[in-house]
Design brief:
Elements lengths: L1 H16 L2 E9 L2 H24 L6 H4 L5 H11 L15 H26 L2 E12 L2 E5 L1
Antiparallel strand pairs: 1-2, 2-3
Helix pairs in contact: 2-5, 4-5
Length: about 140
């Protein structure tokens, strides 16, 4: 009788263990935000370098190459000196409004990319499904 009870207990245990499902907690960064933010930051910085190269890297243009802050410094310098052409642009073709909008857009792109990159690097809790099954060869788990 005792052997039958143990056998019955093992059968019930195997049946209940074959479908055990749970969750484990993992900390992962947000890869899509990291890629998007990094791309925006790099593309904005490349636009800053192109802007400085178009001006021949003289005057205020080297300041524009500073990541994130540089375009805003150039934009502020343009606003503080309305009588001078921004970034050393020739006075005959001086259109301060277009240069200011471009600098602000490049700065905003770099700033947005840096924020997205920072948010993406902060790990988040991810629940991963775990199934444990009892087989004749032992306990198996799938993650």
């Amino acid at each position: 009788m005792r052997r039958a009870a143990v056998t019955l207990a093992l059968v019930l245990l195997a049946e209940s263990a074959s479908a055990q499902t749970g969750y484990t907690l993992a900390r992962k960064p947000r890869t899509s935000l990291i890629v998007t933010g990094g791309a925006m930051l790099v593309l904005g910085w490349i636009a800053s370098i192109i802007t400085a190269a178009a001006d021949g890297f003289h005057g205020e243009s080297p300041l524009v190459m500073i990541p994130i802050a540089g375009p805003f410094v150039g934009f502020g310098w343009d606003r503080a000196n309305p009588s001078a052409c921004p970034l050393g642009v020739d006075a005959s073709s001086c259109d301060s409004v277009l240069v200011d909008v471009g600098l602000f857009a490049v700065g905003l792109t770099e700033l947005t990319g840096a924020v997205l990159l920072g948010v993406g690097l902060v790990p988040r809790d991810v629940h991963t499904k775990v199934t444990i099954s009892l087989t004749p060869f032992g306990v198996r788990g799938t993650f």
